[in-house]
Structure formats: C-alpha cells, structure tokens
Design brief:
The complex is a heterodimer. By secondary structure, chain A is an all-alpha fold. Chain A has a domain of 201 residues: Orthogonal Bundle (MetI-like fold). Chain A has 17 helices and no strands. In chain A, helix 5 packs parallel to helix 10 and helix 16 runs antiparallel to helix 17. The longest helix of chain B is centred in the C-terminal third of the chain and has 36 residues. Chain B is globular and about 75 Å long. The N terminus of chain B is likely disordered. Classes of the chains: A mainly alpha, B mainly alpha. At the A-B interface, helix 2, helix 6, helix 7, helix 8 and helix 10 of A face helix 2, helix 5, helix 6, helix 7 and helix 10 of B.
Chain lengths: 313, 302
C-alpha cells in the first residue's frame, strides 16, 4: 500500500504494467460478468417480465412498472409468514448456535488429557465437512417416523404415545433446523474461539494461579474477557446476516407438508422465481432482502467499531 | 493449547491420579457430546449394511440385524452414482485448480504497490462482497452465457473469489519486498515473479484455499439442482439428495428379482450417503489439521 502517486504518474507505461493489468483483468472481467452484470439485472425488479418465457425480450421492451413488484410483495398473503420464518429461524438459531460453540471451546480447553481432547475434536468436527445432502440424510434417518431411533426412544420412555412424523409436521421444522445445525456446527464453530484462547498469554494464568485463583476463576476472569472481542465481532457478523438462511440445509428438510414453517425468503425466491417463472417478482424480493442486509451490515459495522474499535467489514 | 499447564506427569497412572472430579465430569460430558455428533453417522452406516426389507420393520439402531451388501451392490451398479462421482471429481479438480491460479494471479497483481489504477480496482472488488444482484439476475447471467445445463457451470463461475483474494494478498504482504526487487533487477517479468518466485513460498495459504475449495465443490448440490437438468451432469451430492425422498426402487437389470425385492429406497439412500462421503472422510484427518491453521489465515482479513 506504499503506492507513491506522483512517481507513478511520471513513470512510463512499461511491459510490467501490461502484465499486471492482464493479471488483474481476469478478476475484473469475472466480477463484471458474474457480479456487476447480475446487479444490472436488478432492473428486472422495476419492469414487468413475469410469466413470460422470453425474458430478454421483456428486458429490451423495458416496460417500466416502478415499485409495483415491491408493493405486491408487501401485500403478498405469504409476506408476513416468510418474513417471520426467516427472522424467527435466524434469531432462534443465533440464540442457540452462537453461545454454545463458545461454551464448547471454553470447556474443551479445560480438558487436561491431551489425547482425549484431540479425539473429541476429531469426532465433533467431522459433521462440518459432510454435505447437507449427506448430513440431512442422517438426520432424516434418525427422525423417521417408522424406523428412526428418536421416535423409538421417545415412545419407549413414555414421552409420546405413538411415533411422530417430525418432518411432515410444521411445528417441528424449526427445531429440526436448529438442532441439526447445532450438531453439525458446534464443534467446528468452536475452532475460532479455541484459536483466540490459544493466543492468551500463559503468564496471565500463571500470575492468577500464584494469587490463588481456582479453575473457575481463571475461566471467568481471564479466558472469557480475553476472547470477548472475538465474541463481539462474531456476534455482529451473525447479526448482519439475519436475513440469510442456509438454503442448502433448508431445501433438504423442506417439503409440501411443512411449507408453512419452512418457507423463508431465500427459498421463496427460488420456488417463485424459477418454479413459476415470476422473474421480476422474485428479483424484487431478492433486492428487498439485499437492501435490508446491507443496512444490517452497516449498522453492525458501526456497532463493532464502537464496541471493539475494529470493523467487521 | 493449554499453555498454563506446563507440569509434566511421568506415567499414565500419574496422569490419571492428578485428575480431579471436575476433570472426570468434563470428560464424561464430552464423551456424551462426541456420541451425539458421531452417532448419526454410525446409525446410517449400520442401516446401509442391513437388509432393506428388514430395516423397514424398525428397530435397527446400533448394529445391523441382518447383514447384507445388496444396498451397496445396487448403489455401485447404478450409473447415476458413477456419473455423479465423475462429474464431482471433474469439477473439484478443474474448478479448484482454476480458482487458485486465477485468484492467486489477481492477488499478486493487487499486492503490487506499483499496480496502476489500484485506487479504482480496490473498491470495485470490495463492493461485490457486500452487495449483489441476488439469485434471479445471477441465474439469467448464467443463461445468457449458455452455462445452464452445461458442465462448465461448475467451473467458470467459481474461478475467482474476492474473499480468497484477500486471504492471498494478506499473506503476500508478509513476503519481503526485496525478493521481488531483486528479481525485477534481474529482468524477470511479473508472470515469472508470481509463478516461479513467489508461488512456492505460498504453500501454506494455497493448501488452505485448496482444501476450502475441495470441500465446497465436493459437498455442493445446489448447482446441480438449479443450473442443470440433464441427469448425466448431476453431481454426486445431488444424486444423494434425490435418493433421500425416494420410496420406490427403480429396476436395475444387473440384479436378481429376489435382491430387488429386498431393497428399500431408504437403505439405498443410506448406502449412497456412505459412498458419497467416503472420500471426504478419508482425507478428513488432513483437512482437520489444515483447516484449523487456515482459520488463522482467514481471520487476518485484507
């Protein structure tokens, strides 16, 4: 970043400059095509190209329809449902899946038997590397109404009388998403905090121990405050993506029976935009989401700068 | 990682004796925890080795009741699975290689202090990290480029990523500038500097990005679901996904009628899951190590 402007300007254009421009050019062309051209495609939200197969024809005809598509979305019978599903799922997920990895990291750090700790990490990190198609398949097998072990156990201990078809009942959908996310992600989610804990100076602990601090006090007064900044950063990073759901995860568990609780903004765009050829409408919904996401990001960033002196962007 | 305990205990017994009640509670807690995360995997492996018809009766949880390899025989004789593997291996190898070459090259140029128009390039690239067109416009761009229903949809849109470029540049900045200056005096061009001189020094960061990419490509099913309709182009994970909901078993000529009768969609999907995650679990010990290192690289930010 030491670019000296006045020198740069006087320097003659050389072969080296051409080479560098070619190198950067690959990235620039890529972004123009896959990002900026797509952003240009956002005009679809303001022209009517719904229910037409000739999408390019509709764009070239350019029938401006203003904010009609956005109004339609706000008045959509499903609007509150999908917004509540999106936010509800994410907020609950944040409440459960954000603190538990921290808890996990702090506790696993307390294990003194090295080989045991490494093996626990080995087994608990594994689900993170499996695809949602495979891991979702595992969860579906566990909760299956006829053959699944969960139903069998619940019936056995008398919690329920007869097996429940968890995946076909909207009431259980959020629990399935949050818990499967937890099992898949908790181990791996703790890695960043373990890295932060590893960065804490050993002298701090040594000094506190000489002062007679016990294990709990070390954890409470040294470990936790030392990773507080990392925690804040990640919390705000999570808040900024409150409107994004894990689409690959939801699509595994979503079906016609649980749609009432499983339809979120992202899946609505997919189902409506592609399923029903409502390109303009789905683009408008996507834009609506993007704008709010950017606002959330800007707010989180400002908060982060204020709290930790460091932005998340 | 526990830096504050430096005392070394001589023997294994000595180690056990020094543990307190709290230690044992922790160990017990984590044993339960590891069980919860690992049991689903075990459960499906068990199901995949059980006879399908018998599994459907319920009650198979910890060990197969009637051992059978018919599920695997069915899965491994299915052309969909083999094509899926081929597509996934192809996309993983090609896209990962391409991604690293292109992203590294752009990162090299962006890390040069004498790059012209850098004042324009930086915001131009960073902006795309925060705002995008969304799914539908992106889909239409793929359509415009003729990438829909085309194997290249797995590769071309994955050649570059601003995030990975930032990971590369933050690493490149840590390499002393004198090295390049010497090469410039020797008359080396930028491509030579980037690929012959600096690239070998970037092994750790390349290994990290490589593994990120490999896992992402291996596990992706979304692309096949929305960008591809030809079943010969399905990636393995999407094949697995389509099998998850299957209740009936499609005829497979290489198997005897008795075998087909014993199969169920569910146990077949179990076998498909196991087969599809096998490569990832084989390289998992390596991933585990490298990813933990990469986490530190990633958190440096550009």
């Amino acid at each position: 970043m030491v670019g000296n402007r006045s020198v740069c300007k006087k320097r003659k254009w050389s072969m080296r400059d051409t080479e560098l421009q070619i190198m950067v050019g690959f990235g620039v062309v890529f972004l123009i095509v896959f990002n900026y051209l797509a952003m240009f495609g956002l005009i679809l939200a303001f022209i009517d190209a719904d229910n037409t197969l000739n999408i390019w024809g509709a764009i070239s005809k350019f029938e401006w329809c203003g904010l009609k598509k956005f109004e339609a979305f706000l008045n959509d019978v499903n609007f509150w449902n999908i917004v509540l599903n999106t936010l509800g799922l994410n907020v609950l997920s944040l409440l459960v899946n954000f603190p538990l990895p921290i808890f996990f990291a702090v506790l696993i750090n307390e294990i003194r038997v090295k080989w045991f700790k490494t093996s626990i990490q080995f087994f608990t990190y594994l689900p993170h590397f499996l695809s949602w198609a495979a891991f979702g398949g595992l969860i579906l097998a566990l909760i299956n109404a006829d053959t699944g072990v969960i139903n069998a156990v619940l019936v056995e201990i008398g919690v329920i009388d007869k097996p429940i078809n968890f995946i076909g009942d909207p009431d259980y959908f959020w629990a399935i998403i949050i818990l499967s996310n937890l099992i898949k992600g908790i181990g791996w989610g703790s890695v960043i905090y373990l890295a932060a804990i590893a960065g804490i100076s050993g002298e701090l602990y040594e000094a506190a121990r000489i002062d007679g601090a016990n294990r709990w006090q070390l954890m409470r007064h040294i470990t936790l405050p030392s990773i507080a900044q990392t925690i804040t950063l990640f919390l705000l990073l999570n808040v900024s993506s409150l409107l994004n759901n894990g689409t690959e995860q939801i699509l595994i568990f979503q079906n016609a029976l649980n749609l009432k609780k499983s339809e979120v903004i992202d899946t609505y765009v997919l189902n409506y935009g592609l399923g029903w050829n409502r390109y303009s409408y789905a683009t408008a919904i996507g834009l609506f989401k993007s704008v709010i996401s950017v606002l959330l990001l800007v707010l989180s960033n400002a908060f982060s700068k204020k709290l930790t002196g460091r932005g998340i962007m | 990682m526990v830096k504050y305990r430096t005392k070394k205990h001589g023997s294994f017994v000595g180690k056990l004796q020094s543990l307190t009640v709290v230690d044992y509670i922790l160990i017990l807690f984590f044993l339960c925890f590891a069980f919860i995360t690992f049991f689903p995997i075990w459960y499906v492996v068990v199901g995949s080795f059980n006879l399908g018809k018998d599994y459907a009766a319920g009650g198979v949880y910890f060990l197969p009741r009637i051992w059978s390899l018919t599920n695997y025989r069915y899965v491994l004789s299915s052309s969909l699975i083999w094509q899926g593997f081929l597509v996934t291996i192809g996309r993983t190898v090609l896209a990962t290689t391409g991604h690293i070459v292109v992203t590294y090259m752009v990162a090299h140029a962006m890390s040069r202090p004498y790059l012209r128009f850098r004042k324009f390039y930086t915001p131009f690239m960073l902006f795309t990290m925060f705002f995008g067109g969304g799914f539908i416009p992106y889909y239409l761009v793929l359509n415009l480029l003729g990438l829909l229903n085309n194997f290249l949809v797995y590769i071309i849109p994955c050649l570059f990523s601003v995030y990975d470029m930032l990971v590369f540049t933050s690493f490149l900045r840590s390499i002393p500038e004198e090295l390049r200056e010497a090469a410039i005096i020797d008359g080396a061009g930028e491509f030579r500097i980037a690929f012959s001189l600096i690239l070998p020094l970037c092994k750790p960061v390349i290994a990290t990005v490589l593994l990120w990419q490999v896992v992402a490509h291996w596990n992706n099913y979304f692309d096949s679901m929305y960008y591809v309709t030809d079943s010969r182009l399905y990636s393995i994970q999407y094949v697995v996904k389509t099998l998850l909901g299957a209740t009936s078993v499609e005829g497979n000529t290489s198997m005897s009628p008795e075998d087909l009768e014993n199969l169920t969609g569910q146990t077949i999907s179990f076998a498909a899951i196991v087969v599809s995650v096998l490569p990832i679990t084989i390289i998992y010990p390596l991933l585990n190590k490298q990813f933990a290192k990469g986490f530190m690289l990633g958190s440096l930010k550009g």
